[in-house]
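Table S7 (text form). Paired inputs.
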Amino acid sequence: MRRLSLWMRAHPAVGDCLLALSLLSIDLLVLLTQATDRHRQPWYVALPLDVAMVAPVAFRRKYPQVTAYVILVLTVPHSALQLGIGSATASCIALYTMVVYVGRRQAALYVVAQLAVAVLQMWAHWAPGGWITLIIIVLIFALCWVLGEFVGARQAYHAEVEARLHLLETERDQAGRIAVAEERGRIARELHDVVAHAVSVIVVQADGASYALRSDPAVAERAVRTISDTGRQALAELRRLLQVLRNEEVTGEPRIPQPTAESLTDLAERVRTAGVPVELSIDGEMTGLPAGVSLGVYRIVQESLTNTLKHAGPGARAQVRVRRTENLVDVEIVDDGAGKARALVPAPDLPGGNGLIGMRERAHLFGGILQAGPCPAGGWRVHATFPVRLDP
């Protein structure tokens, strides 16, 4: 039933056609009940007039003002010949449509025209109790006006809500793009230090190899091997860096050593001190990882635990499991806090443009995959995988 209602709202002309057919059916029933009345109108007069009376109702939303005055003109012969309720009902629908879709001023003029036609018809066929009939007509018109005002106000409210939702969606998309740009800039700054370090190592080892090439070939060979390994890793880092769109030129920022996956124990201890018990499990050696991957593992754990501090609520606990295999580093952070609520409302970005968007960008930058979402029993889970080796 809900699906039918939504479909009818998306196709209002169908509802108007059904309304017109319903009014025509009632007038046809009235015509059939008068089959034995010697004063009834011939069918070849009544039927076309009945159809003409209700047909404009099908176009009331597309041409509201034209439809209303066509109904007003057809009301005169239809009501004079007493062919049914089509004229009265169509007039009420026309007034309601004028109030909702045209405006109060045009609707007021239309009411005056309707009342003038009704008074003229009653004056031509005046009968005892005519004033009561006129009062009833005025009250019905007033009811149609009030109903139109109510529906018009409701439609205006819905239009305003839709406009605000569209604006919020646009702002959210814009905020997402800004967050991605800021996070890319921050990743670029971090990779700058990594690449600069690798190039410095290459330069130092090359100088040493040139001095030891003749006096100590073994030392020179080790230096060349170090240059080769460092250069391959730096090349991989540089190719990742070229994919990052950096729009800001950062100057004057202090250079500090970047944390690595080996610093996770200190991170867990700091979070415990902040009030969230953290169970840390590390399977495998975290040494020897590419600098960018090691930094990415640290940052994702850091941001996930920060989200736990901010959103999981009091009494929450967190588990961090990091496992290194031959080809992958698998990272999983799970807390038992308010995961269901956080599933409905996106987590706000952390300072510097972090958050789910930033973590996903960081994982993708190094060829990894990140998944984040609520656990079935409550809480929140972040799972990321990184390749151990970056393809040059």
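Next pair, protein 2 of 2.
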Amino acid sequence: MIKTLFRSDDLPPADRLNQFEEFQTITRNPMRVNSERPEDYHATVRAVDLDGVKVAELACAPSELHRSPTLIRKADPEVYSIVYALRGEVGVAQSGREAALGPGRFALYDSSIPFHIRIAADAEAEADGRGTATVVRAQVPRASLPLSRDRVARLLALPLSGRQGVGGLLTQFFTSLTVDPVGYRPTDAPRLGTVSLHLLTATLAHHLDADDRVPGESGRRTLVLRVEAFIRQHLHEPRLSPSDIAAAHHISVSYLHRLFQAHDLTVSAWIRHQRLERARRDLADPALRTVPVHRIAADCGFSDHATFTRAFRAAYDIPPRDFRRQVLATST
């Protein structure tokens, strides 16, 4: 689902910075690019389009990106962007504020207002001579958010927490789309775009102390996402039950079941589906080829191997051992 849009290694070293700047100036959010080491510049951009929400990973040498009033007049997609570093550091300046983003922090900026972004490699990378930083940026149409632009403007270029709470869910979600996209299909894009909008709305509302202004559906969807994340984190526990999940989120079991009606599955059925999907991914992973099938089943929360085999065959029309054999045979 993710595509490589730019790769400097395919170009002569002398042309890489100029070509990357040209690539940036023809995007829907044009920017200029500078680097202190143009002769040693490198950059790779991978991106995925989630039905209007665009998520990109940029791995590059230390850089500065600038969006001027002239470029804004040239093209303005009217989007909010969030940005954070997976490796290295990133700084965002806009509206008279500047956010220096270390680990676990992200910042928001607006395409309609001039901004400056600084990307730097961490000290260890610089010492090793790699000099590469990796950042994730997600763009969301402003019109898609239910919060007013005046209120959101209070958060521009501020360091916001992406380590815990709703902000943590937001950055984990976007990171998973770029770092580990194997479990997603192109047909998932519209649904993932909707998830992105709900998560970003909930995160901004949290920082604005405006949760009561967020539409009820957004609040409900945010709770569903928290519950789903909790379930995935505890799939390895065979005794995970709806009552455990409800208690962890301070809601009743009956309300938990109502939350999952949109899945057309019971909570227990959704848990089983997630366990089977995780087992299927692990069985297809060449790095886990020496791990016995029964061990993978146990790690996914199946305490009985025969039960796992029957459930896997019912779901995918093939026994788990045969599935692993076929998949790994085609990958060698």
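The CA atoms of residues 83 and 137 lie 4 Å apart.
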